[in-house]
Amino acid sequence: MDAVLEQLSQAVRAAAAAKRPLRLRGGGSKDFYGQALAGDILDTRAWSGIVAYEPSELVITARCGTPLAEVEAALREQGQMLSFEPPHFADSATSCATLGGMVAAGLSGPRRQAAGAVRDFVLGVTLLDGRGDVLAFGGQVMKNVAGYDVSRLMAGSLGTLGLILEVSLKVLPLPVAEATLKLELPEDKAIETLNRWGGKPLPLSASAWSRGELAVRLSGARAAVAAAREKIGGERIDDAQAQRFWIGTREHTDVFFRPQSENAAPLWRLSLPSTTAPLKLGGEPLIEWGGALRWFASNADARIIREAAQRAGGHAALFRGGDKSVGVFQPLTSPLMQIHRELKREFDPHGIFNPGRMYPDL
Predict the structure, then answer these.
(1) Which of 333, 303, 308, 306 is nearest to 317 (CA)?
(2) Which one of 251, 276, 303 terminates a domain?
(3) How much is the average pLDDT of 251-263?
(4) Domain range for 233
(5) Residue 96 falls within a domain, yes or no?
(6) Of the N and C termini of the chain, which has fewer Cβ atoms inside 10 Å?
(7) CB of 358 closer than 8 Å to CB of 161
(8) Pair (242, 285) in one structural domain
(9) How confident is the model at residue 146 (pLDDT cuts 50, 70, 90)?
(10) Cβ contacts of residue 185 below 8 Å, gap of 6+?
(11) 94 shares its domain with 28
């Protein structure tokens, strides 16, 4: 494996010397996400394998090219999981989600509302910077607080700061019991109800509202799940059907996310305060995370969508489809963009890693 690492380092050094852009890529399952792809592909899949796993310590460390499915299978054998429920967005015939891509994309699934985001579980990373040097940050414990938290900075960076060689993640036990309930509620009532439940000691681990139906997942001890079912009411969904539903919501294979034609409206992802009232942006939304995540397939002007999100105290991203010339992510203020530029200059002084993947001028 040392030979693989040396090849990666040499490729980075050569690109830096020639100032030739590199496109960091694992399985390619997130190629659709972010701005236009650019640069020669630097494939990370050869640098793979689980380095260390201590179930009793709730920590796993693996290399960037390790298939995400392999990591999750190893955890399931020990009754554990990545509790932020990361999406794969992978067609096994053409693409395979990798651990490095999971961290770089920084995307979380339905359980994020209860467990937290990817970045909250990153304990440490080993990074190959734009000079071809190997840098280590963080560790395998949650108490590493000295200086900047560079490890968590890598979550959602889309490979613009460096190649994540290795990552240590905190894991959690699988829930003992789960149940999914379905209730018929209009959008405004669903948002109000979810926020009311959020203030109560209920074992809510996921929620999704669309087309007048609210689905909520309860996870935890059997007694807690049973008691919450009595309080919430609604119809209990068969466990197998519920599993398909939550996987479909996480992986965007649910009918809501499937384009009905080549001219389908672009998919927008809005992160908002959970109490935000319904937004009228054209098309029916799908609401997750207790009201804090809202998906819209909408042909509305990008400026209108972003202004609506900003007025509510949130932000909007063009997640899939549409004209990326409007910018995929919410424009940054000048001070924030300056911070991004300084970080890019520090980790990638020659600007070779995934140029323009987050913002066209970064």
Answers:
(1) 306
(2) 251
(3) 83
(4) 177-182+190-251
(5) yes
(6) N
(7) no
(8) no
(9) very low
(10) 193, 209, 212, 213, 214
(11) yes
pLDDT of residue 139: 65
pLDDT recorded at residue 148? 57
Longest Cα–Cα distance of the chain, Å, equals 65
Query: Among residues 327, 324, 321, 325, which one has the least CA distance to residue 262?
Result: 321
Same domain, 302 and 247: no
CATH of the domain at 168: 3.30.465.10
How are beta strands 22-25 and 40-43 bridged, if at all? parallel
What is the number of domains present in the chain?
A: 3
Picking from 4, 21, 3, the residue whose alpha carbon sits closest to that of residue 12 is 21
Average pLDDT over residues 192-200: 96
Cα separation, 80 vs 83, whole angstroms: 9
* Cα angle, residue 251 at apex, residues 247 and 255 outer, rounded to 5°: 85
- Looking at the structure, tell me whether residues 57 and 87 fall in a common domain: yes
What is the predicted pLDDT for the residue at 143?
Answer: 43
The DSSP output letter for 120 is: G
Query: Which of the 8 DSSP states describes residue 243?
Result: H
Helices (H), the chain: 2-18, 68-77, 99-105, 112-115, 150-153, 187-198, 222-232, 239-251, 302-311, 334-347
In a domain, 353, yes or no: no
Based on the domain organization, do 46 and 168 belong to the same domain? yes
Instruction: Please give the mean pLDDT across all residues of the chain.
Output: 94
